[in-house]
Amino acid sequence: MERLQKVMAQAGVASRRKSEELIRSGKVRVNGLVVTELGVKVDPQQDVIEVEGRPVLQEKKRYLLFHKPQGVITSLIDPHGRPVVADYLTSVHERVYPVGRLDSDSEGLLLLTNDGELANRMAHPRYEVDKVYLATVKGKPEPDTIRRLAQGVRLEDGWTAPAKVRKVRSQGPDTVLELAIHEGRNRQVRRMCKRVGHPVRKLVRTKISFLTLEGLGKGNLRELKPMEVKKLKAQLSL
Q1: Whole-angstrom Cα distance, residue 175 to residue 30?
Q2: Could you give the residue range(s) of every CATH 3.30.70.580 domain in the chain?
Q3: Residues ≥6 apart with Cβ < 8 Å to 13
């Protein structure tokens, strides 16, 4: 037996906090009865749960890594008909969705899941899940510039949190930097590098927490191993 709001979050209805609001507002029924108390426990395999009249389906939990190619939108649909992540999910029957975003100009690692609670914790700054990028930037950043990136730079939406930044190699007139950040601001790495005078030419996300791109070709998916799921949940206190 599990708390109702946890079951709802795991089913992808909403975050746990939003699920609690739905319960309090009388929009949730269990076995036909309206539930407004947060302490109610349910059996997701036996009890019939409805939110605003729609049944909550308990799908098999899926945890997938995807190597997003450049030019693909991190979305399940696009009104302009551009390539989207969903185009690569034809063999996945569950309703999975991307955790966080990766802009269309970038490539690299995305986590896809239908575990709403895990997805919300992955995106929450409190858990400080590192995301690692290889950024090919214009020019040759000086050591002081790299330290500035690591300490935090001021963007239009505020100062960035401290990051881990190191020079990987020179590449002709450009430089490859590795940056590890745990914030999830829109196009953050690109904006950070531009702010210090070294705009990004190419950006690849290589790692999310301990999960890497190793062995995963562009456009390919792989299921997380049970031990990887267990380790990720432990990191997120699930």
Answers
A1: 58
A2: 63-126+211-236
A3: 19, 22, 51, 56, 116
Q: Which residues make Cβ contacts (< 8 Å) with residue 171, sequence separation at least 6? A: 136
Radius of gyration of the chain (CA): 20
Query: What Å distances lie between residue 35 and 1, 109, 116, 217, CA to CA?
Result: 16, 40, 21, 47
> Quick one: CATH architecture of 2-55?
Roll (3.10)
| pLDDT (mean) for 128-146 | 96
Kindly indicate whether the domain formed by 130-208 is annotated with CATH number 1.10.150.130: no
Q: Is the pTM of this model over 0.85?
A: no
Select from 77, 67, 83, 88 the least CA-distant residue to 208: 67
Q: Active-site residues: which are they?
A: 103
pLDDT tens digits, one per residue of 145-204: 999 999 999 999 999 999 999 999 999 999 999 999 998 888 999 999 999 999 999 999
Neighbouring residues of 68: CB distance < 8 A, sequence distance ≥ 6: 74, 85, 102, 106, 107, 108, 109, 110
Write out the CATH class of domain 63-126+211-236: alpha beta
Tokens, residue 45: 């395999």
Distance of alpha carbon 158 from the chain centroid: 21
Q: Torsion angle, CA of 105/177/97/187, rounded to 10 degrees? A: -60
CATH 3.30.70.1560 residue window(s) in the chain: 130-208
CATH 3.10.290.10 domain span(s) along the chain: 2-55
In this prediction, residue 1 has a pLDDT band, given cuts at 50, 70 and 90, of: confident
Residue 188 near residue 194, CB atoms below 8 Å: no
